Amino acid sequence: MPDDQPLEQAFPRPLSGAPVEQLPSARIPARAPLRGNYVELVPQDAAQHATDLYAAGHESDHALEIWDYMAYGPWKSVEDYKATLRAQSASFDTIFYAIRPLDSERFEGQSSFLDINPLMGVIEIGHIWFGPRLAQTRAGTEALYLMIRYAMDDLGYRRMHWRCNSLNEKSRQAARRLGFRFEGIFYNHMIFKGKNRDTAWYSILDDEWPEVRGILEAWLDEASFDQNGVPQTSLFEKMMSQRTPSQRGNFSS
């Protein structure tokens, strides 16, 4: 190659990716409550929430199953658990919430924003666990909807992702139910509790979110439930049947 020949001429290659016409807003989620029709999410406070959350995650054998695929837990006492909550609540790069159904006086679960990259417009919801009273309820579904809506609509993020142990079928089903598309498996991604973890990745992109939001809001509407609060349709089936096909990903894995 001649000394005066530019490198890009000697090795021409196309530039990958479409241009980004509008940069992300680069805003970090505020440590502020999120409230819907059925649930509220409150910035986690160990002094206020440890007793409720410990009970929700430890009061039965069914509740203890929550920790099977989490990187931490269970704990021997509420005092041990409070130490973990204090460390979580003090985190600068992960924002934790305690979740309370509005028809209950007790906080019944936890969630967080993490992997927050406001310059790139990328964010994740994770550290999600629901106690038995919150699991498989519209309050639980609304809690995650509120988080996604806040990040995508209010803060202008362009990618929301969801990661979980590839063996955790409940978490994978939850991702699909909420409209996340499967992207693939990262093998040998982590070691947790002395065991290998292969990680399944899912995401919702900004151009997909309006469609997903519409399906979620229609399902969460009061008219979609009978007088006993039982949904008249399956959110998973609605999401599978109404989502626009995409070459980017699918819901089958």
Give a short synopsis of this structure.
The protein has helices spanning 7-10, 46-58, 61-64, 78-89, 138-154, 169-177, 209-220, 235-242, and strands at residues 34-35, 39-43, 95-101, 109-117, 122-130, 159-165, 181-192, 195-205. By secondary structure, it is of the alpha+beta class.
Would you tell me the overall average pLDDT? 93
Main β-sheet description: 8 strands, mixed
CATH architecture level-2 label: 3-Layer(aba) Sandwich
- Give the total of beta strands: 8
pLDDT < 50 stretches: none
CATH topology: Aminopeptidase
Number of alpha- plus pi-helical segments: 8
Question: What's the helical proportion of residues?
Answer: 25-40%
Q: What is the overall shape? A: globular
Percent strand: 15-25%
Query: What is the strand arrangement across the widest sheet?
Result: 1-2-3-4-5-6-8-7
CATH class: Alpha Beta
Our count of domains comes out at 1
Q: What structural class do the secondary elements suggest?
A: alpha+beta
**Termini Cα gap:** 48 Å
Order of helices and strands: HEEHHHEEEHEHEEHH
Radius of gyration: 20 Å
- In CATH terms, the superfamily is Gcn5-related N-acetyltransferase (GNAT)
Describe the structure.
It is built from eight helices and eight strands. It has helices at residues 7-10, 46-58, 61-64, 78-89, 138-154, 169-177, 209-220, 235-242, and strands spanning 34-35, 39-43, 95-101, 109-117, 122-130, 159-165, 181-192, 195-205. By secondary structure, it is α+β, with helices and mostly antiparallel strands. The N and C termini lie far apart (48 Å). Strands 1-2-3-4-5-6-8-7 form an eight-stranded mixed sheet. The protein has one domain: Aminopeptidase, CATH 3.40.630.30.
